[in-house]
Specification:
- By secondary structure, the chain is an all-alpha fold.
- The chain has one domain (2-163): Orthogonal Bundle (Helix Hairpins).
- Helices cover 87% and strands 0% of the residues.
- Helix 1 (2-70) packs antiparallel against helix 2.
- It is rod-shaped, with a radius of gyration of 53 Å.
């Protein structure tokens, strides 16, 4: 019984350790879920910004094409057009081209950031799945240890009941032995003639003697 109590105590300690590990893993899973939500929000924001930049780039290209179409195909003298308008017309394609290059650079940066965020999100998802698997395994071990602890407690109760039954049986046997000894003493006492103090080996001899005993 002492060994069973010690085993039950060890099982309780293992259950407590597994429960603590479960709490730690659940905290890590919750933290990864928060990080995953943050990454999802960042990805959504970057996707919106990327779409806006692509739209802006498309509009800039369309404006540049429109500006090129509106340029005069024949030479216009200074006397026919103010010089400021001519300079502005000549400088518009270059400015538009520069703006488009800038937008392309920004678009490339956002694409790289978007790819990085997506990779980080995938890594977090893998870590979350791994932690969830470890948590499930520990929970299964926890349930197994609890069942073993309950079975151990039932086994202890069965041992107690078995011990009680054995003790009761031993008591009955002891009582039976005492009764047999008492009966043997009675038989031995019954084989003794109380009148002439003679002893006989069996009851039948005693009965025969009683019929012939001169002391009667």
């Amino acid at each position: 019984m002492k060994m069973a109590n010690q085993n039950q105590g060890d099982l309780r300690e293992q259950v407590e350790r597994l429960q603590e590990q479960n709490r730690l893993l659940e905290a890590r899973v919750a933290e990864h879920e928060k990080l995953q939500q943050s990454c999802s929000s960042n990805l959504e924001s970057m996707r919106t910004t990327l779409d806006a930049l692509q739209d802006l780039l498309a509009r800039c290209r369309a404006d540049m094409v429109l500006q090129q179409q509106n340029l005069p195909t024949t030479a216009i003298g200074p006397e026919q057009q103010p010089r400021s308008k001519l300079q502005r017309a000549n400088s518009t394609p270059a400015a538009m081209k520069s703006e488009i290059e800038l937008l392309r650079a920004q678009l490339e940066v956002y694409k790289n950031d978007f790819a990085g965020e997506r990779i980080a999100r995938q890594v977090l998802q893998l870590e979350k799945n791994q932690l969830a698997g470890e948590l499930q395994q520990l929970q299964q071990q926890n349930r197994t240890l609890i069942v073993e602890a309950l079975n151990g407690s039932q086994a202890d109760q069965q041992d107690v009941r078995s011990f009680s039954r054995r003790s009761s049986r031993m008591s009955q046997i002891s009582d039976a032995i005492g009764e047999d000894d008492q009966h043997a003493d009675q038989l031995q006492e019954g084989s003794h003639c109380r009148h002439c103090d003679r002893t006989f080996g069996d009851i039948q001899s005693l009965e025969t003697h009683i019929d012939e005993c001169p002391a009667y």
